[in-house]
Design a protein that fits this description.
By secondary structure, the protein is an all-alpha fold. Helices cover about 80% and strands about 0% of the residues. Helix 3 runs antiparallel to helix 4.
Length: about 100
C-alpha cells in the first residue's frame, strides 16, 4: 500500500463499506479467505486479526471465539497459531528479560 495515495485509500474504503452494506459479512469473510493465494497471506491475515484483538490487552470470550473460528477458516493448525501468537506477543517478554540482564 506504500504507493497508494489518500484518494486511493478513500476509494478502497468506500468499496469495502459498500460491500459490507450489500453482502452478508460471513459471505464476505469466506470470499476474502478464498482469495488469499497462499499460506503466507493466510498467516498474515491471522496475525492482523490477533493484533487487532490483542491491542487493548484484553481478549473477551467472544473475541477468542472469533480468533478460533478465523484460525480454522484459514486452515492454520493449533501449533502454528500458537507460534504466531508467541512471535507477535512474546517478543516483548524476551526484550524485557534482555533489558533486565543488561542492567
Amino acid at each position: 500500500f506504500e504507493d497508494y495515495s489518500e484518494e486511493d485509500f478513500e476509494e478502497l474504503t468506500e468499496k469495502v463499506v459498500n460491500l459490507i452494506e450489500e453482502e452478508d459479512p460471513e459471505d464476505l469473510i469466506a470470499q476474502s479467505i478464498e482469495s488469499l493465494p497462499n499460506k503466507g497471506y493466510r498467516e498474515a491475515a491471522y496475525i492482523a486479526a490477533i493484533l487487532v484483538v490483542g491491542i487493548d490487552e484484553e481478549v473477551p470470550e467472544s473475541e477468542q471465539d472469533y480468533i478460533s473460528e478465523l484460525q480454522e477458516a484459514l486452515k492454520i493448525s493449533d501449533e502454528r497459531a500458537q507460534e504466531l501468537i508467541d512471535a507477535v506477543f512474546g517478543g516483548d517478554e524476551d526484550e524485557d528479560e534482555d533489558e533486565d540482564e543488561e542492567e
